[in-house]
User: Fold this.
Amino acid sequence: MSAALSTDHPALPACPPGREGSPGCAAPSGRTARARRSSDEPDGATDVLVVGGGIVGLTAAWRASRAGLRVSVLDPSPGDGATHAAAGMLAPVTEADFGEEAALRLGADSAGRWPAFAAELEADSGLDVGLRATGTLTLAYDGDDLALGRRVRALQEAWGLDSTEITVAAAREREPLVGQRVAGAFWAPGDHQVDPRAVHRALTAALARDPRAAVVRRRAVRLLRSPGPDAPVTGALDDAGVEHRAGTVVLAAGADSGSLLTDVPEVCAPTRPVKGQTLRLDAPAWFTLDHVVRGVVQGRPVYVVPRTPGPDGHREVVVGATSEEHPDDRRATAGGVFALLRDARALLPGLDELALVEVTPRVRPGTPDNLPLLGPTSVPGLVLATGHYRNGVLLAPVTGAAVDALLAGDPLPPTVAAIDPMRFSPALLPAPPREVEASRRGRGSEPSTSTTGLYLGAPASRRTP
Assistant:
């Protein structure tokens, strides 16, 4: 079993009066949250079809299977996307950022669910998921980095988060390998880590044990829906021309999610690929790094995540990550590797002696506001579970809780209900200013009478704010 993980992330303050409709404080949308069963579909349909087999998709499938439903996962290479590159930091406190309170609430909620999630998954699969209650040490390389760290620390304090500034000497007591040029340090005792590849293996094993679950190694090319007004989504078409029918479809295809909605113009999922490269090093027994170490080196963020040592004392150490607005070309670049090693060794010079065994470039599914698209849509039979960006591993438990709620017809977790998955969809986009609409039609012409507030001329599935 994994080490016990503390759940001492404090409860965040309630949304203040007057902010109930703002991001992170929005009231639930009112859409019905009960999943459709295969009894609504032709014989041979499964209850739940999950499009996407990363950690988010398999979590959704596992929860559906635990609820006694027939579930299929459609993915050509399950776990080979962002999950394969992820380092597995469970760090809502350390990653708190200005203007992202909704993300903090969601992340803190999910971090608190990780102990029970891991215990249930380990019991169901018989495999360890590598959950380690280590805390996180954040290092500032120079004076400017320290000033930035103190501004973030003030934000954390304002939000009631457990983070303290400590001396460099105290940091070296925790981690003797901290470099001599480090200017300052911060300690977040409740930010931990898990091994994403181990979690994915456990999810795969748990599904393999259930005769109601199946993984189909094909690529989805588009979602299917019935004809007529208010028609439900009924499945997905794969790249071999095979139709996979289901009562409920969970779209968890990461950065590819938006491209699968060509026949569902009411729903917009503006996911985009944000490439990240991570490194995996082999550390001998003398490299005694025990905590997650994050840092800022001349304004550039970097992290170093040590895994549990093996029987021979060696351990994997993950270094990351670049952030590049590029398509999924899966090319490891010399510049990316150099930048990560340069900044990581500035904080922990002993990294120079470790063997570089893997460079893993993958894309994360970003959204315009860095929040996931999670929950029921206005289209019957379609649930979104995508756009988790850099936090798919952290948010797996709360994603599972949302799926549990959908299947039972219960209310979504408040932190999920506060983030409307339809917020980028046509009916919810604001109308353009009257003068903009007039200029589009010609000076002096009447503005459009459309009540949707959409710009004309672009396919609805591609409209973003």
